[in-house]
């Protein structure tokens, strides 16, 4: 691309002023198209972080995305905001538990792909984060197996799903409290594990810091960690790996 | 005991001055015999905390205890100190891994009692703390089953010992890193679990604080926690429970 | 149990397929019956953690438990939720101070057992956690002595109850602020002490973290700690020990 | 595998006692071969964590691994220990900067695979962790591009390597101080980024905690984090993803 | 000034008592006029910190300042308070996003000075702090270039403004999350950078502490840091430097 | 006192049983009269900590104290609670800023004593804590000089009060933010300084923890610290010292 | 003093230039004599903080002090440094346990004053800090009662000294671990308690931070806290109070 | 500069290939000359961070810099390293207290400029950091006034230097402990203050974290903070501002 521009200058087809403008816009560096056609390039739709945005702001962003035929994914959207948005955009769907609002044009949410991501969570209190992860992965085109309520306090429940977990391409493990589930899963599989600490627990949980620290200290290799309650981020990493597994050309 | 003293005054067998002295010494309050005949009352020998004491100080304490026929248990005794002590007190034994020096007059270390305490540790790096716990329990007269190197990263190793663990009266679980072992054991047994966090791990372990926090947040009921690297304290609690199980009258 | 299954196969009484199913369900490992008949096995009824659950969810869980003749214990139930629940389930009892809702079929709450657990708390602000502990222990079948408002700032109040405290099988010590009560009790008794830090205190209490750290650093051996404000957990540990003392076969 | 065992019992080829032993060893559960033939199953050789082990212990583990024709990777091996080990095992190699000792039978360290992992580090002080990561990845069979000393304080150095970084399958970003490099790389690529915080920095770095927290808060999606200074863990995750990309059957 | 007083005593024009009073009031030390004519001396109007003050209190302070012809700047004024204040003082202006209320007599907010301060922020969530900074700087008489939403996750957006940023006299960089923007800007410019961490982010952001620590550990020299969310303080520092650049005599 | 009891036994005037009771009640130990006649012994009235108590509870405690002719001091009483209480107990006084409710029978609040305690605070935001301290001291019978709004950012204001501060018997310094006022005052006086950190400040104040740590690290000898926002505790210490200065016999 | 100077000017005895110099030296402000004749004014000799100073530096400071007939107190002086200093200044005394070096011209260390300070410490590990406090107090002219090794784990030992403790003018309580001793003493006495946390304890002691936090949260009023291991600071506060009690005019 | 390149292409003076190379090296972006001719552009010589580098590495870097006629500044160079370096490079100077090694070709260290930077430090323990700052500033061409040992515990010493401090263009305030000096100076001057916390202090100083937090919470506007012990960074910021004041064209 730089070649193109420089050759055009040489050939007099491009003024020095215009070339300078293009080079200054850094689109020729390869990372400048993000905003204009992110989906085409990376396969990931734009994502709206709903917290701190008004329903009106979210609606106008969604409309802009729909006009470009982009899929829509908005996280951290409260029930109250969603009600306002859905009145104006009834074609969107909303999951209250996951606080996720989304729209996928003409396409089923579930893929027919054989490979799948295991979304594993410890207890019912982790459901919100787990569903944020699960819906994110599905909207980004991955197949998801939900394996919920399999905390280590009742190990048999987890082992009951062993084969299903081992069959996944990548696991996203969501847990609060002591976060032991990430280590136990990490010790049972030979694929990457993305651990998502949640802010669930009594006093010394420190809003998830204890869980986060525990997961970072996991004795199981092959485990990496994202921020507290960041179900979206956990899924995003998993989808990246799933796409690599499916041989999808991204770059 | 107060009765005795008061009756002796009444009967003129004890002068007011002497009675006052005894009462002032608080021996009549029931908690004053600790120092003079602690072993007889509680069944626990005096324990010497070796850190910060010179070999000479330790030797003189041991001699005093031996002269009272007390068992001797000294924790946190470095190899260097132990060498000096053993030259003068060759009848003592020393465990380098546990940094424990002890002497038990005429008695085998192992009890023939059926009931036992399970000392369970996650990895080889936790061995020092585990052995401090195991020797403490044995010196205090309990039977110990050592179940070592059964961290959750290789869950099958732990499950292999399941029956043995479930058969214990109480478990002491020693682990560093994310400390998940305490939660997993807690979920597998119906007896009390004493968790001992160790200061083993990479950077964000924070010298055991991460493990400590994780264990306190354990999702398994029936688990309580002692201080970091405190193998002695973990064992002390377990022995107390073991004695209750064996119907030993303490009070 | 594995023997049974394998022998049945050998004898042709069980098909390979059925045996595999049973083994896969991990019920043969000894830890699989928890969910189906937990009370029979461990003596502990299921416990409902009320926080984050709707009254309707709690009601349906209680009904399921009642249909199995299980005792019911729900912790962290707010007054508002309890009012809704009691309208539909007037046979249940509710303690507002402890935020505990419970039902014990046809049985008195107090046991006639001689042995008892001492529930000791420092100040009136710790009452909620103390009562959560006391009711938990009583519902699990233990006898409880409540020894309240005996903080170390007025040491004589504590010493006044000395004999009663020393007579217990196990003590649960509940305190906020500097948590000194746990150390002082630990120094006065020769039975296990379970310390429960509470989130009571001025600024540098850090929502109970200061108390928690202080208790973990207790200079008294024989003390272990559970999470902040976790009255239920403290009682659960104490009941386990009390049952061992009473020779109740659990496993 | 369970089928085999059960059928053999049925056919009388296996005694109940022997079957029980095999089942008890949990090899039939699918996760039990780890210790005996881990390399065959997962493609990863056993790894020796050198810290806290004596040279003699390391030597005996290496010999055991060599006798099974396993590759050898020992991390956190100090120069002093390595000198002792290399005298007895001169066939091993040692990298002082990475503190890694390794042996790869008859095979070149570099693979001819086109795909590669980018190991990117911010400054010369991060070299030890970066080389631990790079050698780990190479020993596990991945190709590595080392892109060092490209911290964000001189952004042009990083941008100079832009194409090379974007061409990788996965990036491992190693940085101390404010760890901004992870976010910047995360914003420039569309493949997974594994961030490794290092304990490099002035006072308020808190031995890497500041860097760790910053990386967890990265505004770039697609970034996950491992523990401080854990170059091995970062590489392990990256190799897992690289193998998925190369279509290597693991399970 | 001391000279004046002392000479007046010598000449009998000032009584010892009066001289003592003046010296005691410390106005002769050069730092005592702050309260009486702060604006004349430092060029900075008094600033009202609105948090914790009632609308009535703020109104009376503003009136006092207006009567002295001082400019008025009140920070941290909520919409509710501002509504009350503006009813009584309609001549004031209010920025809801910045929560800043101000009044500048007869003067345009924008200066015609060529030199300018770059106020740079990472994301839309940092806008409130950025606008507090921008308005503060403008009210204090500096020219401001707002360069918003240029977080490092999309580096091209930042580079697009490179020349504008490099042309500033001083930059105020406002960012939450990992705060990498401060380091990146610091590496691109050769003027001072004042970094303002914001409390924007997921769980492990710790209300801005993570960002603060990251910024303090910036690998770019020439960066200093103010308190979390302290847009006012960041601007105040920048204006001081801007005035030095413009050769304004202050002392 | 023990003498008395013992002699009475010897003389047959007291039965053994009664003597035992008295000794068991620990009243003979000298610290048992606290609850019955605390005011007579220590000169300090009982203090009611209002937080977490209902107006009704506070009213009944006050009535009990009034019936014993005790002065009444209740701290942390919200405006809402005070309104309820004052309706029933109109003889009480209430300070809204200090959140203190009190009653002093027939006596003026101000003492005529020459000696005084200096209550010094940095800014208007510290007023609540300062007034809690000032009223506490006055109710306990000390004379108080209020020296408010003398933070170190305008050092001349503080120096203006220098003689007054130096003339006090003891100073209570109340400050938020960086708490520098405690060090500066400590360096200017030769009497004890009690520092009270307040939870006033921007983000990195950490609810007063930063101020607390700063004060503990004060470079001025003669300064000690109480808990965050604990105006009552600061005053209590100061009054103790003031009474010593006034030669009041306490013990 | 200002009067003197000003009158001398008026009378022509002092030139304006000289007066200005004196006033500029701030000696006229009342707080300027500290360095020149601190002992005369405050009764406290200069104190040398030995850490980070060479023996030579300490020697020259001591010589300067001796030439002014000042008492000498140097804290934190290691054995190595002391050996060097004592060779040159054999008239000095050194306490190895307290790491304190001192010289008191012609005067006995012990005062004949009746009033005394109680220096109370919990265990033998706190001895160094306790002795630093005790020697400091004695060198500053106070009488000291040492009450050592009375930790709350053996409450009877503390109660044995009750009368002695209650008889003190002020107590300095030195304790590590959970620091409960400060609260217990605070509850037993009606004089001020200065608490000194020490860095003694297992893992979660956090180098004394846990003890510090616990002491700040003490439920006993009348307790204030100084920095960790700061025996000197604790004694300094106590001596100030003791002097007030003895009616010593300081100002 | 981009213009130049593009015009040369247009004029045929530069081949497309060469232009591309230059543009790819990002020199055309304006921030690419840093490494090759940093001094010319920014006026700042390269700085060598000595920690973690061998003497040999430092020597070779210095030689490279000398060959380019660059000034040399190496920070954090221990005495041992400096001895080795000075043997080979006797033309360099070394300050042991500042741990700074430097070389300034043919030029005096002191500038004749009137404007100056005030380097102010609290105590003798802060000298190392203060001298690192002072030498850095001098080597970068600024004039420095050293105002040392003026901690707030003896406020008169600070006030004695008031005029000198107020006359500076910018102040660098270096303090440990509670860091109050930064606030006090900030309140006395109307120029920017750069605060440098040092890791000097007793236990709760937390290696400078307490000081850092205190400084960030300074109640004086116009103060910004750099990392703990970062004297170099403090000076770097100050020099930037000093150059602006001196009208030096940088960009």
From TrEMBL, chains A, B, C, D, E, F, G, H:
The lineage of its organism: Bacteria, Bacillati, Bacillota, Bacilli, Bacillales. Pfam families: AIRC (PF00731). GO terms for biological process: 'de novo' IMP biosynthetic process. Residues 115-247 form the PurE domain. It comes from the Bacteria. The gene is larB. It comes from Aquibacillus salsiterrae. Coiled coil: none annotated. This is Nickel pincer cofactor biosynthesis protein LarB. NCBIfam families: LarB (NF033503). One of its GO terms (molecular function) is hydrolase activity.
């Amino acid at each position: 691309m730089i070649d193109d521009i420089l050759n055009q200058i040489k050939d007099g087809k491009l003024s020095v002023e215009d070339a300078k403008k293009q080079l200054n816009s850094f689109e020729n560096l390869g990372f400048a198209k993000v905003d204009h056609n992110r989906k085409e390039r990376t396969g990931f739709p734009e994502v709206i972080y709903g917290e701190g945005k008004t329903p009106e702001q979210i609606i106008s962003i969604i409309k802009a995305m729909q006009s470009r035929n982009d899929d829509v994914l908005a996280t951290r959207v409260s029930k109250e905001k969603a009600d306002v948005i859905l009145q104006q955009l009834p074609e969107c769907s909303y999951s209250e538990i996951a606080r996720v609002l989304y729209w996928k044009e003409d396409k089923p949410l579930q893929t027919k792909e054989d490979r799948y991501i295991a979304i594993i969570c410890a207890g019912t209190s982790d459901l919100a984060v787990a569903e944020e992860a699960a819906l994110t992965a599905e909207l980004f085109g991955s197949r998801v197996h939900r394996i919920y309520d399999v905390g280590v306090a009742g190990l048999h429940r987890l082992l009951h799903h062993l084969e299903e977990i081992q069959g996944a391409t990548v696991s996203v493990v969501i847990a609060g409290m002591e976060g032991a589930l990430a280590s136990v899963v990490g010790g049972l599989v030979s694929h990457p594990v993305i651990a998502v600490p949640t802010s669930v627990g009594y006093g010394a949980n420190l809003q998830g810091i204890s869980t986060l620290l525990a997961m970072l200290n996991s004795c199981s290799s092959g485990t990496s960690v994202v921020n507290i309650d960041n179900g979206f981020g956990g899924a995003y990493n998993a989808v990246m790996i799933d796409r690599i597994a499916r041989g999808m050309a991204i770059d």
